[in-house]
Amino acid sequence: MTWLIAVSAGIVALAAVAQLSFGSYGMTPAQAWAALADSGVWRQPAILLRLLLGEAFAQARGLSQGQPLATATLIVWNVRLPRVLVGIMVGTNLAYSGSIFQAVTRNELASPYLLGVSSGAGLAALVLMVFFPAWLSLLPLAAMAGGGLAFLMVYAIAWNRGASSVRLVLAGVIVAAIAGSLHTAIFFYARDANVFQNALAWTAGTLTGADWRQLRLVAPWTALTVVLGLAGARNLDVLALGDGPASALGMAVERTRFLMSAVAIMAAGSSVAVAGLVGFVGLIVPHVVRSLVGSAHWRLLIGCLFAGPALLVSADSFARLVVSPTQLPVGVVTGLFGGVFFLFLMRKRRNFAKP
Amino acid sequence: MKRLTSHRDGLTGERLRVRYGPREPLIIDGESLQIPQGKISALVGANGSGKSTLLKTLARQLPQESGNIVLDGLDIATIPTRELARKLGILFQERHAPGDLTVEELVSHGRYPHRRFLESLCAEDETAVRNAMEMAGIGELRHRLVRQLSGGQKQLAWIAMAVAQAPRYLLLDEPTTFLDMAHQFDVMDVLVRLNRDLGMSIVLVLHDLNLAARYADRLFALRAGKIIASGAPDAVLTEETLRRVFDVDTLIVRDEARKTVCCIPLKRTARAEQGARAGQPGLNDFTGADGRARPLKGTARQGVDRLQPFPERYQEV
């Protein structure tokens, strides 16, 4: 456990250093650190608040513009730091969502991506972005509603006196395919090539352009997810014993399953709202953490709190820096990692995903 | 919670009718039974006769279509779920432990109904968990993985979990099925200790009539959703009753030394004789109480699944 936390935190730190330093405006790590620690930011609460809470808040409160900042400081604070922070949030959300889905469906293949929840959330978010751009602040809520609807549909399709692993994933594929077609249809509705390119990257899952506004959209939901996930950890443990035993132990099984699913949908929806459809993180991270710290959910979820960001932030630094100046969507990298890992799971563990 | 003044302590089922769905046949057909307090009671009967269904209904794990269940003077439908779990525990046959769950972790889940939402294990819980493991004789297995235990040890671990729950009634669905003789004794001896030392009332579904005769204070014999006979083992285990319950001819031997009876199965009762009992569905017809064919559950289902490759041999019996 300690090792997992230490290594994960180390990976996040290394990836963050790379993300803050390198890129089209190159810096040494020392320069990046200097920009991060720039007293021009830290000594001026007006600037700090403007970044954290947004321009609208700053104007409403009449905050001063403050002293002008150095270019390096502006780049680190306005562009690179929020991207790392959003990556941390999204990684946490997806890992929590996957862990919770795997527990409530008692299915090790479950993840927001494979259950079609991400696609449903993505479709709802895309509809909002293209047709109702004025209500963009509702993006996480719209994505959650879409994800929740997709989850209900998947369950309804898969249900046949209980829902087996394979049926759930098949139903997830069906719902994801339908949602995916509608995504694509919406792209063609958007005639501007620039919008098209952005929407395409978003479908693959990307943190490009993630700034403080995205952080403000996702951070409260991440906090809520982590708190509710950890608070429900013991319920997830008991649920893992099976419906009969859980109910015999005095759990209201269906209510618990419903509430914890809602937490998982909230986590997935809010991450889709800011980063699009990042695949496989919700599947891989819980598997890796479980193999290291066991399946007790308290430890599993604490582990995910570190391992999720580690995977996502490091994948994002690959996506941004390896073929620089072209920026790949982070979902391409997690998809590559994830596909190979999935293959490994299937071949290595013979009883994997047996119905 | 609704208190019924007409009832004193104990677990009582009144005129219970149970089916698995609105259009499914009746599994339990208007039966009443009184589980004596502080005793060991056993439900016996053929595969598919409704034993497990009755047990689950008594624990409120299946909804009854009509009828009441009264636990210590309280209508069981009105007891909050958590509180019910502190009074009554039930172990199912089908269950599943996550791969890396240790015995101690499993047993500590038994404290679930005693803990509030965010409360961690308190000293009282830890004592209860330790005592439960000692009681079940698995204290030294506490750090082993449940997955790696033998069938008998697994059964004892699950029983320890139910003991940590500290219920006054413990219901078990076929706790000895699939265990070898030695482990059957281990399990039954633990149940006897729980009954004698803690005063727990035990209700179990048993297939082995000799174990039932030896350990139970009271037997309920079921056939096609009806309780055909109930009472002390030597009153229920008669050649006549067993013929009516199982369609099997038996020889009943009194074991004077152990003050019990012993049942030796001889053969299937002749078909002509079975047919002569008008209106009674035969053992292998698997028809419900209303005479309609019904889906098999539990052990009955597994039994048929195992037999399917050899249908002709099955009919020869």
Q: How much strand of chain A?
A: under 5%
Shape of chain A: globular
In quaternary terms, these chains amount to: heterodimer
What summary fits the major beta sheet of chain B?
6 strands, mixed
- Per DSSP, the total helix count of chain A is 17
Distance between the termini of chain B: 52 Å
Count of discrete alpha- or pi-helical segments spanning 4 or more residues of chain B: 12
> CATH-wise, what's the superfamily of chain B?
P-loop containing nucleotide triphosphate hydrolases
What is the N-to-C order of secondary-structure elements of chain B (H for helix, E for strand)?
Answer: EEEHEEHEHHHEHEHEEHHEEHHH
Number of strands of chain A: 0
- What is the CATH superfamily label of chain A? ABC transporter involved in vitamin B12 uptake, BtuC
Q: Work out the radius of gyration of chain B.
A: 20 Å
Instruction: Return the CATH class of chain A.
Output: Mainly Alpha
Task: Characterise the protein shown here.
The complex is a heterodimer of chains A (355) and B (317). Chain A is an all-alpha fold. Chain A has a single domain, classed as ABC transporter involved in vitamin B12 uptake, BtuC. In chain A, 75% of the residues lie in helices and 0% in strands. Chain A contains 17 helices and no strands. The mean pLDDT of chain A is 88. Chain B is an alpha/beta fold. Chain B has one domain (11-316): Rossmann fold. In chain B, the strands form three sheets. In chain B, strands 6-7-8-3-9-10 form a six-stranded mixed beta sheet, with helices on both faces. In chain B, strands 2-1-4-5 form a four-stranded antiparallel beta sheet. In chain B, strands 11-12 form a two-stranded antiparallel ribbon. In chain B, helix 3 packs parallel to helix 5 and helix 4 (123-135) runs antiparallel to helix 5. Chain B is globular, with a radius of gyration of 20 Å. The chains are: A mainly alpha (355), B alpha/beta (317). Chain A binds chain B through residues 106, 231, 234, 237-238, 240-242, 244-245, 247-252, 294-296, and chain B through 59, 61, 81-86, 89-92, 94-101, 105-106, 109-110, 112-113, 115, 117-118, 162, 165.
